[in-house]
Amino acid sequence: MNPATNLIDTVTAILLITNLMLLGSGYLTSCIRYAALQGLAVGLLPLLLHAQGSWGRAAALAAAGMILKGVVFPIVLTRILRDINVRREVEPFVGYGTSVMAGVGMLAFSMWLTRRLSLSAVPESALIMPAGFATVLIGLFLIVSRRKAVTQVLGYIVMENGIYAFGTALAGGVPLLVELGVLLDAFVAVFIMSIAIYHISREFDHIDVDQLDRLQG
Amino acid sequence: MNADGLLWMTLALPAACAAACLALRDPGTVLTFVRLAGAAAAAYLGLVACVVFKTGVLSGAGDWLVLDALSAFHALVLSWVFGASSVYAGSYFGAELREGSLNARDIRRFGALWFGAMASMTATLVCGNLGLMWVSMEATTLLTAFLICIHVRPLSLEAMWKYLIVCSVGVAFAFMGTLLVGSAAQRLSLGSMDMLLWSRLRPAAAGLDPATMKLAFIFILVGYGTKAGLAPMHSWLPDAHSQAPAPVSALFSGFMLSAGMYCILRFIPLTEAALGGAGWSLRLLAGMGTLSILVAAVFIAFQQDAKRLLAFSSVEHIGVIALGFGLGGVGTFAALWHTLNHAAAKTLAFHSAGALGQGRGTNSLKAFAGSLRAASPWGQGLFWGLLVLIGVAPFAVFMSELMVLKAAADAGAYWTLALFLLGTGIIFVGVLRHAVDAAWGEPPAMPSAARPEPHPEVPGVTQRLLVWAPLALLLLLGVWLPDWLGTAIARAAEVVGGAR
């Protein structure tokens, strides 16, 4: 087994472990750290899978991705937590233990789905694609199963990480301009969501999204 | 000017206007600028679209910027909606500025985001690369989010948060779909730069991997369908439409939903070619369209709020459009035509409801009672707008819905036809009741805060033009579809290739 493959498998493992830790933790500061670690790991992927493209493209992409997900997002989110004075997720709709089990189930589902579809993945590791797909599902799960708006933003970031891993693992790769555009969108999205959370906490004195229910019918 | 220049200008013009709005100091000047520059930018986009109708596809930057018949037709719709709403926004926010509910900073922010939204929506249409099309679509979500809560209030924040999360997550699925299309294109051995270029994929689409394309289309349909407001992904729509200021609601309903649909349309010929033209993707789309019509019918009957009523009517009409595309054949033509008709009618209805609501301080339908008696033309606008929207003959909306019906009959889809009639029938009765009450009902006792004349300063001509021009257009299109427009729509329908 060559070293690159080894590294890729390590990245995949980090991706999966951080997913489960996110599902199992209610402390928002820890969750932000796990998501940042996940972002850093995913950001490495273009460098490890650079076989299709040039080094320059891979390096630019990895740098942009890692700075954004490993540095900028955690700073923005930690700031917001400090401003609104919220520490942890209280009474999620689905308990932490159940969430972790659900996460394992989603991973199994992704394995089954990607195997059935025989998508043309890069040959180095067959695991990245199902792991990426599972990350997308887990991000979605975080968004629908937690109460705090901050966790929803984290869920969005996790989804974004999953899509990023999935996209990098697809053989061929997307043009650099598109990748950068996607990263820019993710950045602006998280930025805008943070501003929105700030306003929500000021108007409502809480950031529990399940209580945002006055508009109905 | 060459094609490159023409296309770049469609993006640069609104972007420059957005920057100008931030630079201008006086809020009154910003509003005048929004009115004039908005109309100018819209007119320019409309002109470029007409160039495409006249001379054929414009393409620049190595096919990364393309305006073909389909996108040009949608650009024409955008041009109408954005132009009318910009002019309207000038007076709408002018009233709020005088009243003091908005300050200079809010107005500048509105102007910048308004033109930014225009730039990103135009980018959705002119980007020939499916990946960049997605980037622009996500940008429309991000740029318009704060337009919903120009007035920072609990309800508008709630609507904005739902919009932001639901649409961002939904559209993220569309990106998965786009990536899968790239994966399906592996066998075509296109270069990395060409991989997601629609103009390269289209001729070679028969070689795309069918199983991957099926999965991709499901992701695309769910993703962009969220943005288009198709049921059951429409949960954000009534909240966002009812809480946003009226010009923004008009832009959302008149164009942004159609932009979501446009993105789905780009993938239909690819999927169909890959699957051998069996109509699989069209059936999915038709099913969702029918469901949207029925869901809207259920909710519309109980609405108390004028703008929520209009929002559910948008779910209905996007359903009609999806159904038309799904039926194929003459339905594709009908759906495109309906896109234009709905945009014109819904823009008018939202403008009218907004102006009436502003004067009364509420959007409750009860408060609108007797609005036909008021001096301003907005009561007329709302009344006629609602009539047009529920499909009263001989307005154009009726004609295009009739054509969708014909397409259903042609395709032998009698169940669909029956459900379509049931849904539109319920909506017809439900909305007619509201429209009649609003027009001739007994006006409620005016609360002391209400201002009888919401727009005293607006030149009456502008006001009347905003009401009667769309009605005249809809009547005209209903009785006589000009040749050039018919040809333009037919060409756009060819791009979708709806024939089954």
Description of the molecule:
The complex is a heterodimer of chains A (217) and B (500). Chain A is an all-alpha fold and 217 residues long. Chain A has one domain. Chain A contains seven helices and no strands. In chain A, helix 2 runs antiparallel to helix 3 (55-84), helix 5 (128-145) runs antiparallel to helix 6 (149-169) and helix 6 runs antiparallel to helix 7. Chain A starts with a helix and ends in a 13-residue tail after the last helix. Chain B has a domain at 1-128. Chain B has helices at residues 3-23, 27-55, 69-99, 104-126, 130-148, 154-184, 198-201, 210-228, 237-243, 246-274, 280-300, 306-327, 330-360, 378-389, 396-410, 414-440, 460-479, 483-496; strands spanning 58-60, 65-67. Chain B has a two-stranded antiparallel ribbon. In chain B, a hairpin with a 4-residue loop joins strand 1 (58-60) and strand 2. At the A-B interface, helix 5, helix 6 and helix 7 of A face helix 5, helix 6, helix 8 and helix 9 of B.
Sheet with most strands of chain A? none
Structural class of chain B: mainly alpha
Q: Which blocks of ≥5 consecutive residues of chain B have pLDDT under 50?
A: 448-453
Which structural category fits the helices and strands of chain A? mainly alpha
Count the strands of chain A? 0
